[in-house]
Design brief:
Helix content: 25-40%
Radius of gyration: 17 Å
Structural class: alpha/beta
Strand order of the largest sheet: 2-1-3-4-7-8
Strand content: 15-25%
Largest sheet: 6 strands, parallel
CATH class: Alpha Beta
CATH topology: Rossmann fold
Distance between the termini: 23 Å
CATH superfamily: Alpha/Beta hydrolase fold, catalytic domain
Length: 253
């Protein structure tokens, strides 16, 4: 049995992991899902919610359930949250799975990973939306992502505006990111030429990082939950990577 803690990405609560949680539990794994502050559907003041708030959400869940040997799974923007949690709780987290995720870098924010013009646009959108990152429309969610129209609508109808500060607060890491034991999951439909962001590409040389690929888009827990479950079940629980998985060839599954 493995212990998973699943963190949803931008605009989403724990509900997005439902297609993955059910089979993992049926297979005997201990699965916990964290809905981050400000993403539970309430419409309260989110101005005080920062990156540390989201990190504390996950740390508190791990402590509340007294979890050990945790495989922490972060999707999209919550890759940053997962990475910081692993940095602060190395005695609890044994492996991090970054699902098409942003990576944490000491002194930088999530939005620093965006190209300058896009970063400016997103910062403006947050400012004009009272400190919240507005949800995308259904066309942007579904286009080229392997989702059916019904799946895209299921997502967008549940999306809520994301607190802005967790995206703009700088990360603080006590240990080098490349020292983490991690799996990076690339969703191929999100990349026209399989070229990843430079900071992700650099992790190929990290001795404890493995790269895996799924033939789907940005929301694999919705578009390809069976494939994602199979991949998660192969994640090692300790220091030893299964033979042949380290620095996998770009065409590996």
């Amino acid at each position: 049995m493995k212990t998973f803690v699943l963190i949803p990405g931008a605009w989403m609560g724990g509900w997005v992991w439902e297609p993955v949680v059910r089979p993992l539990r049926e297979h005997g794994h201990d699965v916990h899902v964290v809905t981050l502050s400000g993403l539970g559907g309430d419409d309260g003041d989110r101005s005080l919610i920062g990156l540390d708030t989201h990190v504390d959400d996950v740390l508190s869940s791990i402590a509340e359930h007294d979890l050990h040997d945790v495989i922490l799974v972060g999707h999209g923007t919550s890759g940053v949250v997962a990475g910081v949690v692993a940095d602060r709780a190395p005695d609890r987290v044994t492996h991090v799975v970054y699902v098409e995720a942003f990576l944490p870098h000491d002194g930088s924010s999530t939005l620093d990973a965006f190209a300058a013009p896009l970063r400016t646009d997103e910062l403006r959108a947050i400012a004009e939306n009272h400190g919240r990152w507005p949800v995308p429309d259904a066309a942007a969610v579904s286009e080229g992502q392997g989702l059916s129209p019904e799946q895209a609508r299921w997502l967008v109808d549940r999306f809520v505006d994301h607190p802005g500060r967790p995206l703009t607060d700088p990360v603080r890491l006590a240990h080098p990111l490349e020292n983490q034991r991690a799996t990076y999951v690339v969703c191929r439909l999100e990349h026209f030429d399989e070229r990843l962001a430079d900071d992700v590409e650099r992790m190929r040389s990290a001795p404890e990082w493995t790269f895996r690929y799924l033939d789907t888009g940005l929301w694999p827990m919705v578009s390809a939950p069976g494939d994602l479950v199979a991949l998660l079940e192969e994640v090692p629980e300790n220091d030893d990577h299964p033979p042949g998985t380290h620095a996998a060839h770009p065409r590996s599954r």
